[in-house]
């Protein structure tokens, strides 16, 4: 399973890249606005930090403008995935850019039917938003299960399931259980994946006992 970080905060991306476990980055217009950074400069900087896919979302919503923006974004770095909304125009852009060899991440997916049409449009990634579905009383992870089942039934679908709008580590665990290809998580959730109170407690005990033993593995 691949881990992407869902942020436009360069300091956070650098810190997580140091773990060696970061496979890519997703951004969206809200995260970019929050960063206060120039979008193009920001995307170039992020793409130089992480070798894996970096999602950069178009700002327009009509086909011609999205196509022009997507073509430009794809020139910023080799590892750009152009992110488009799951609309008829967005899928048309997806089909065109994918045919040119550009990775496309189709975002704002809330149904299995939408995931099917995105796969048919040649998306490299489909981004179902699990947390936003949970927020309105639906079951976000049930959608992931449904999409994974459908995609597995059609080997010609090469689209990767990118679980987005992740709210807690259990979303990641369930996504992995279902065989989803990628989870994109806010930085705090990626850090939570490493933690368990029994690990902290056990380590403190081992450190104390090792000190009591008076031994050293390497001579001073
Ligand atoms: O970047 C897309 C998605 O992960 C957004 O998540 O937390 O705004 O629902 P959220």
Give the oligomeric state of the chains in this entry, treating copies of one chain as homo and distinct chains as hetero: single chain
Largest sheet: 8 strands, parallel, barrel
Mean pLDDT: 97
Tally of contiguous helical segments:
11
**Cα end-to-end separation:** 41 Å
Bound molecules: SN-glycerol-3-phosphate
Low-confidence segments: none
How do the strands of the widest beta sheet line up side by side? 1-2-3-4-5-6-7-8
Total domain units: 1
- The total beta strand count reads 8
Report Rg.
20 Å
Binned strand content? 15-25%
Which series of helices and strands comes N to C?
EHEHHEHEHEHEHHEHEHH
CATH-scheme architecture: Alpha-Beta Barrel
Structure class: alpha/beta
CATH class: Alpha Beta
Give the overall form: globular
């Amino acid at each position: 399973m691949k881990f992407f970080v869902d942020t436009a905060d360069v300091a956070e991306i650098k810190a997580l890249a140091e773990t060696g476990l970061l496979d890519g980055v997703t951004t969206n217009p809200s995260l970019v606005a929050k960063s206060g950074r120039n979008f193009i400069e920001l995307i170039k900087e992020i793409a130089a930090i992480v070798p894996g896919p970096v999602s950069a979302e178009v700002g327009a919503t009509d086909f011609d403008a999205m196509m022009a923006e997507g073509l430009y974004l794809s020139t910023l770095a080799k590892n750009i995935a152009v992110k488009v909304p799951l609309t008829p125009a967005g899928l048309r852009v997806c089909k065109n850019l994918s045919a040119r060899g550009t990775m496309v991440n189709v975002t704002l997916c809330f149904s299995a039917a939408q995931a099917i049409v995105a796969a048919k449009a040649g998306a490299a990634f489909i981004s179902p938003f699990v947390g936003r579905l949970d927020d309105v009383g639906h079951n976000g992870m049930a959608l992931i299960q449904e999409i994974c089942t459908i995609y597995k039934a059609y080997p010609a679908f090469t689209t990767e399931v990118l679980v987005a709008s992740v709210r807690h580590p259990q979303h990641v665990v369930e996504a992995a259980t279902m065989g989803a290809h990628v989870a994109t998580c806010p930085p705090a959730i990626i850090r939570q994946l490493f933690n368990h109170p029994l690990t902290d407690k056990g380590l403190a005990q081992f450190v104390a006992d090792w000190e009591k033993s008076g031994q050293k593995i390497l001579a001073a």
